[in-house]
Amino acid sequence: MGERPIVILTALELEYQAVRKYLTGTRVHRHRAGTRFEVGRLVGGGHQVALGLVGKGNHPAAVLTERAIAEFEPSALLFVGVAGALWPDIGLGDVVVATHVYAYHGGTSEDDGFKARPRAWEISHELEQVAHHVERNGAWKRHIPDETVIPVVRFGPIAAGEVVQDSAVSEHAKWVRQTYNDALAIEMEAAGVAQAAHHNRALPMVVVRGVSDWADGTKVVTDGANWQTTAVANAAAFAISLVEELAAELSPSTVGKAAREPMAENVRNVARDHARVGVQAGNIYGNVSVGQPIEPAPDSAALLAELRTKLAQARTAGKVDEDTFAAAETEIIIIDESLSESTEQGKGRALIALKKLRGLLMDVAELASKVASVIAVVRGIS
């Protein structure tokens, strides 16, 4: 595939459906071993996403995560679903982004007791920074079904084991809370997913969980109050916004070292000032041009000006709120300045800003369409 998708995996059908509603144009992709994925794009013509269901438990999660990675060679991987909170101050419906994952069942049994020997995997620094940015800018809240109740986004460790914990007083529950007292939540799949990502040259991986219960014996009550549905909707809302940001921020050179991108058809080197440009390559396919800087397409400025006018009209009509308008204006300024450089680097920055802009305006069809037109023109600049 020319475009490397982002893979999203879930354990439960409820979680799968919560993510799937954000995709359009989905088609079934069958793995030769029988696993079915669905491949589509973010609503609004966004990045390609491959969605899969792994079932419960770390072992099947590891196997099917490995299968998804081998099949799609993704640029990033997200695991999305629900979890139980380990502490009462964490609210039902809150979103937990794992800074690292504990596989807490590892250990040794000795005469004086059980000694923990966990394995742990950390989220990459870059992805953690992107996740914090998504939380700070607040744009993800537009996906929350009930915007009167905005969940708290928390960053911290998640413990992943092989049992459903639903007690605060059992020996197992006491041991988990004592041994992993910095963990915010507990679940059953993240360790398998994290290990599979780790074994694929540290593929960037994020676990996003919505808190559906407190793992304290009240799960039947909270499930009966529909907190599982609320929690998974909140987790999916944050995860989709994270995918939008990742699609704009992470390039093939910085994501997934196992990437095998084909060499571009044309290679262009640009010399500035008194520099000389040489071409060094083992093999060169297609055309190589050395010469003048890239000239912007003649109508890109006009399209951008038209987009800015439409954006202002949408704000006046109440279709775009003030925060979204300000954020969109910032991206338009970046696009304008980047295109004025007339370089490949400027073109790249402009495309990244355009993708962010598309994410901000995706709920307004007319504006999203205008952004798509600008993207098409900028991509055609040569």
From TrEMBL:
What superkingdom heads the lineage? Answer: Bacteria
Question: Which CDD domains does the UniProt record give?
Answer: MTAN (cd09008)
Q: Which InterPro entries match?
A: Nucleoside_phosphorylase_d, Nucleoside_phosphorylase_sf
Q: Spell out the coiled coil positions from the record.
A: none
Q: Where is the Nucleoside phosphorylase domain?
A: 5-243
Q: Name one Pfam family in it.
A: PNP_UDP_1
Task: List the protein's name.
Answer: Purine phosphorylase
